[in-house]
Design brief:
globular; 5 helices; eight-stranded mixed beta sheet; two-stranded antiparallel ribbon; 30% strand; 168 residues
Length: 168
């Protein structure tokens, strides 16, 4: 049986998750629950808050250099300009949409397991074929997440992330 022994709790956990995500952008969680219905529209792929903040859900993929899987992914929310949000929405079900130039955006998901905050990292959002989540590419910086996306991570790092999330 595949799995790992957790360095935090000492228990054996079956399997090793290679993908995590969140249900909404960070700003959505800042809105009091009683106000969310009137201030925000949230679907599984898009979010609009106060008719002025526009978000889409994409996949930030990281190569795994020595694991059973070749990619680890974070499902993350990215804020787009109003113009780019509506352009992406207009093309949502259009064949060939992947030929669209990437949209600039700001990472709008606070990811755990990183010493530096991940909110507001610069991104390019690459549209993929219909039915596939957009690919989120981070600007190449010295942030650990950007370094991991460019250079890859080991299965040991995937396990560290699993332990971090399990015990946070």
């Amino acid at each position: 049986m595949k799995g790992y022994t957790c360095s935090t709790c000492g228990q054996f956990h079956t399997g090793l998750p290679y993908s995590y995500g969140t249900t909404a952008p960070a700003l959505w969680f800042d809105i009091h629950e009683d106000e969310r219905e009137e201030r925000a529209l949230l679907s599984s792929d898009q979010c609009v808050i106060d008719n002025q903040y526009f978000f889409i859900l994409g996949r930030l993929e990281i190569p795994v250099i020595d694991g059973d899987e070749d990619r680890f992914s974070w499902n993350v929310w990215v804020s787009l300009s109003e113009e780019n949000f509506f352009r992406a929405s207009e093309l949502w079900e259009t064949e060939g949409r992947e030929s669209e130039p990437p949209y600039f955006g700001w990472l709008s998901t606070a990811l755990p397991c990183y010493a530096e905050a991940t909110l507001n990292l610069k991104t390019n959002v690459h549209t993929r074929p219909v039915g596939e989540r957009p690919f989120v590419e981070l600007e190449p910086t010295k942030h650990q997440l950007a370094i991991e996306q460019r250079g890859g991570i080991t299965e040991k790092r995937v396990q560290e992330i699993a332990e971090c999330i399990l015990h946070s």
